[in-house]
Amino acid sequence: MSNTTTLDQSRPIFPFTAIVGQEEMKLALILNVIDPKIGGVMIMGDRGTGKSTTVRALVDLLPEIKVVKNDPFNSDPDDPELMSEEVREKLQKNEQLETTIRKICMVDLPLGATEDRVCGTIDIEKALTEGVKAFEPGLLAKANRGILYVDEVNLLDDHLVDVLLDSAASGWNTVEREGISISHPARFILVGSGNPEEGELRPQLLDRFGMHAQIGTVKEAELRVKIVEQRASFDESPVDFRNNYSESQQELTKKLIAARSLLKQVEIDYESRIKISQICSELNVDGLRGDIVTNRASKAIAALENRTTVTAEDIFRVIPLCLRHRLRKDPLESIDSGDKVREVFKKIFGYQS
Fold this sequence. Notes:
Blueprint: H1 2-10, H2 23-34, E1 41-45, H3 51-57, E2 64-68, H4 85-92, E3 99-103, E4 106-108, H5 115-119, E5 120-122, H6 124-130, E6 135-137, H7 139-143, E7 147-151, H8 158-170, E8 172-177, E9 180-185, E10 189-194, H9 203-208, E11 211-215, H10 221-236, H11 238-244, H12 246-262, H13 270-282, H14 289-304, H15 312-323, H16 337-349
Parallel strand pairs: 1-10, 1-11, 4-7, 7-10
Antiparallel strand pairs: 2-3, 5-6, 8-9
Helix pairs in contact: 10-11, 12-14, 13-14, 13-16, 14-15, 15-16
Main location: plastid
EC number: 6.6.1.1
Protein name: Mg-protoporphyrin IX chelatase
C-alpha cells in the first residue's frame, strides 16, 4: 500500500497554478474542493486541452483530513455518516480510536476496471468456513472522502456507470454475494472528463455531476506559445519547474483551507435564491438539483474570495457551470447552452456584466 503511494508521489505532477487559461475548468474544480457537496464536475472538451493534466494537478492542493488509523475506508472519527461498520462498533464499545492526519486522496478509475475492482469483493469461502465477513475493499472504499476521477467517462461501461451513480447518490456502497451483504461509506467528489466527439453521456449520468465545464482549444497565438514553452520546461526539469511555482501553490492551498472553514458563515439572501429558482424555472430545468448546486457554488465562490455574503456577480460566474448540462437539448438551437443561461440571468437579475 505505502509502496504505491510513494511511487505516485515520485512522479512529478504539473503545478495547478502554472496552467494557462481554462479558467472555467479550474474554477469548477476549486469550488468542489471547497464544498464537496456541490457534487463533482464533468469536463468536456477537445483532445489535448489539458483536461487530465488539470484534474491531476489538483492533488497538490488538496487539504488534509482526520482519519481513523489503518482503516481502508478513510473513516471520519467524528462523523457517524462517514464511518465504516467496524469503526462504529468500536465507538459503541467505547474503544479508543487511533487517528491520523492525511491528504485527501484522488483515485483514478481505469476504463477497463471490473465491477469487483470498483466495489470490492467478499471472500465467500472464508465467510462459509470461518463464519467471518471477509471483505476486500475496492476503489470506492479508497475514494471515500476523496476524489474519484474517471477519464473518458463517456466510454465507461453502462453497468459501471450505474454503480457509480448509486454510490454517488447515496454516499454508500453495498456489495452483495450469496446472501452476504456488506455496506461501507463511499462519499466522494466525482470528476469526469471526456471528448464530445467520442459520444454523449447519458442524461441521468450528466445530471449527477454538480457542474459541467466546457473547454475549447486556446486560439490566441501568444497563449499557445506560452503553454508550449511551459510544457517543454516542465518536461526538461520537472523538479525545478515545480520549485518555481511552490510559493503560488502554497498560497492557493492556504486560500482553499481558509475558504473551507469560512464556508459555513457565508449567506445568500432570500431575494437572490428566489431569482436563482426563477432562472431554473424559465430554462425548464428538470428537478431541483440545479437550484441546490447553484446556491452551494455561489456560497463557495464567495468563501474563496474571503466574503460572507453572496453577490450577483458570484452567481453570474457559477450559474452557467451549474445549469448548462441540465437544459433540454434543442437540435435547432444555435446558441450555446452556457450563453443561454447567461442571457436569462441578465434578464432576471437586471445585470450588466
